[in-house]
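User: Just a sanity check before I run the rest of the batch. Below are the structure tokens for the first item. I only need the designed sequence back.
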């Protein structure tokens, strides 16, 4: 999953066009754009559970030039993972809850034709239909879903405003959920994972198993999140020169769940769910393959070192030695083919 993501040139052109026609700005107005971004960022910090102030022009500008490119990269990475698992097979419509201007649906446009976007501020957000297409249905509440067995429910950074997954979503065949990669939101997502399993869902990714999550049961601080490398356009780099935050890599926490059972992974398949950490005498990297909290371990004295991306499926070599919660690597670990 953690491959470099870029902003498609056609989307960049549309963003620039909207900036000019609606706000009298362009992607080259780095200083003015940065002021809007800082204002919206401060709003989110001061109101972590508050709804995005879509009615404010500065919020629309900030989303277009900053949060949209970053969130698009995150969702595209999750969609890529879903495609590698054939997760969308048999699904033909999307209900995007808390859709904002439709960033998540934008990433799904190549794979679905029918979109229902649910957003309280739909009158404002629907103005950005260049993201989702004019044929998308915009509503301010969830409609009656006629074919739940072929529907994908999308929650992209919208569960933070809810205490639990809505009952209507639990009737759907499939769910794609993205949440901020903070400890609080990440662990909340791990708790939701277990509730989904108890409700009859099967986890397709990032999980490699259907047992209890070891990050939740064996740790009070860990949470699962993936890292995405973001190839910043030149104008975005200039924008960031006026901002305190930099985004060479992005993180997100996500779940892909279906009522249909996930394909069983071979016993030697695991997912890296941590970055490689150098310790005294060895390097270690957290992995997921079952209910035990385990690490890949490369002992320095053996002279073997690797830099595996975070969030990829790997094949565990047959000669790996299990010592406590470590799989000590004797020969190179290879990424699994999907």
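Assistant: Here's the designed sequence for the first item:
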């Amino acid at each position: 999953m953690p491959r470099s993501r870029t902003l498609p040139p056609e989307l960049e052109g549309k963003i620039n066009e909207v900036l000019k026609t609606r706000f009298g700005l362009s992607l080259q107005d780095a200083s003015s754009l940065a002021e809007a971004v800082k204002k919206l960022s401060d709003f989110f910090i001061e109101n972590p559970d508050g709804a995005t102030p879509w009615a404010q022009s500065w919020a629309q500008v900030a989303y277009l030039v900053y949060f949209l490119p970053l969130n698009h990269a995150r969702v595209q990475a999750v969609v890529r993972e879903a495609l590698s698992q054939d997760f969308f097979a048999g699904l033909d419509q999307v209900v995007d809850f808390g859709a904002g201007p439709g960033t998540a649906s934008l990433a799904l446009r190549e794979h679905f034709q029918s979109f229902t976007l649910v957003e309280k501020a739909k009158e404002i957000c629907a103005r950005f239909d260049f993201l989702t297409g004019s044929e998308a249905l915009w509503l301010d509440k969830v409609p009656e879903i006629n074919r739940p067995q072929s529907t994908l429910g999308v929650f992209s950074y919208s569960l933070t405003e809810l205490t639990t997954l809505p009952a209507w979503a639990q009737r759907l065949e499939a769910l794609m959920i993205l949440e901020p990669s903070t400890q609080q939101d990440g662990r909340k997502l791990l708790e939701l994972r277990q509730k989904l399993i108890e409700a009859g869902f099967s986890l397709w990714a990032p999980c490699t198993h259907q047992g209890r999550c070891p990050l939740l049961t064996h740790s009070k601080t860990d949470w699962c999140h993936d890292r995405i490398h973001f190839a910043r356009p030149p104008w975005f780099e200039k924008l960031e020169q006026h901002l305190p935050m930099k985004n060479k890599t992005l993180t997100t926490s996500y779940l892909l769940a279906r009522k249909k059972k996930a394909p069983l992974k071979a016993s030697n398949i695991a997912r890296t769910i941590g970055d490689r950490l150098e310790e005294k005498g060895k390097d270690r990297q957290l992995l997921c393959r079952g209910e035990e909290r385990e690490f890949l371990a490369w002992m320095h004295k053996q002279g073997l070192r690797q830099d595996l991306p975070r969030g990829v499926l790997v094949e565990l070599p047959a000669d790996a030695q299990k010592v406590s919660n470590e799989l000590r690597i004797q020969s190179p670990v290879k990424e699994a083919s999907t």
